[in-house]
Amino acid sequence: DISIADAQAQYDTNVWGTARTVKAAMPHFRKQGAGQVINITSVGGLIGFPFQEYYCSSKAAVESYTECLAITNAKLNIKVSLVEPGPIQTPFVANTQAKTTFADPGVKDLWDQFVAGMKTSFASAVAQTPMEVAEVIKSVVDAEKPHLRY
Q1: H/E segment holding residue 135
Q2: Could you confirm whether 54 is annotated as catalytic?
Q3: What is the pLDDT tens value at each position of the chain, 150 positions in all?
């Protein structure tokens, strides 16, 4: 199982890192009367995955946070959007494996099955490349009236 310290680190990066960045930028956007926030979440913020309780819940928190930002800032000419990629061809699976340990061998067997499936997804044609995700982000930047979700 992932340690509470590692879970806190995920939340600090995914939730609090996002909030700190937005909080730092927002006064400048409000002063200039315009701005754009693009938060990166994950399909894991919309649906849960086995063994990804902290990752998925942290991404769900960013989803909700961003929805609130969009409502709050709609009349201030500050555009707010989410990019919600699925599997991306990155070392995500290996990084997840490195931080997970199990005391119960039965749970470890389930984990191994899950990882095998994830490796297939992240290596398949379904997985996006980092460049494809960057292109989506650029399309959000270039949109005159960006949607909330991409």
Answers
A1: helix 130-142
A2: no
A3: 788 998 999 999 999 999 999 999 999 999 999 999 999 999 999 999 888 899 999 999 999 999 999 999 999 999 999 999 988 776 666 666 566 667 677 787 787 777 787 767 666 667 788 999 999 999 999 999 999 999
* 146: its two tokens: 């960006």
Residue pointed to by tokens 């989410």:
82
Query: Which residues touch 145 (CB under 8 Å, ≥6 apart)?
Result: 79
3-state secondary structure of 149: strand
Cβ-contact 61, 104 below 8 angstroms: no
**Could you tell me the pTM of the whole model?**
0.81
Of the candidates 54, 55, 65, 150, the residue annotated as catalytic is 55
**How far apart are the C-alpha atoms of 101 and 96, rounded to whole Å?**
10
CA dist., res. 83 & res. 87, Å (int): 13
